[in-house]
Design brief:
Largest sheet: 6 strands, antiparallel
Strand content: over 45%
Shape: elongated
Structural class: mainly beta
Number of helices: 1
Length: 112
């Protein structure tokens, strides 16, 4: 899937966001997924910070895996993990660190 959106901030700027994502699922209950995102943000800092109101491009790459432990005709319950690496401009390193990253462990329940 490809997507584009805009955020009309009042006060603030009109900023763009782009994303691409996909998933590959098997009949055995395994799913791998990935997402790439680029957003332009102007609300990362508040006044009187000198960076308040500036627009910054922030990128992320997320990849993950889920396994459905329980699958029936009408439902599924699975466990998964996803990891995200972020790319930020050098002006944001002091606030967010040199290599922002995250890990998510989750449980998914689905009705079919």
């Amino acid at each position: 899937m490809l997507a584009w959106g805009q955020d009309h901030n009042h006060p603030g700027h009109t900023t763009n966001a782009y994303t691409a994502e996909g998933a590959l699922a098997t009949d055995a209950g395994h799913t791998v997924f990935a997402r790439v995102e680029l957003v332009h943000k102007d609300e990362l800092f508040v006044a009187p910070d000198p960076l308040a109101g500036r627009v910054f491009p922030v990128g992320e790459v997320t990849a993950g895996y889920r396994f459905d432990l329980v699958r029936s005709r009408h439902s599924a319950i699975g466990l998964g993990v996803a990891g995200t690496l972020s790319r930020i401009p050098s002006e944001l390193v002091s606030a967010y660190g040199a290599h922002p990253a995250g890990v998510l462990v989750f449980v998914r329940a689905a009705a079919r």
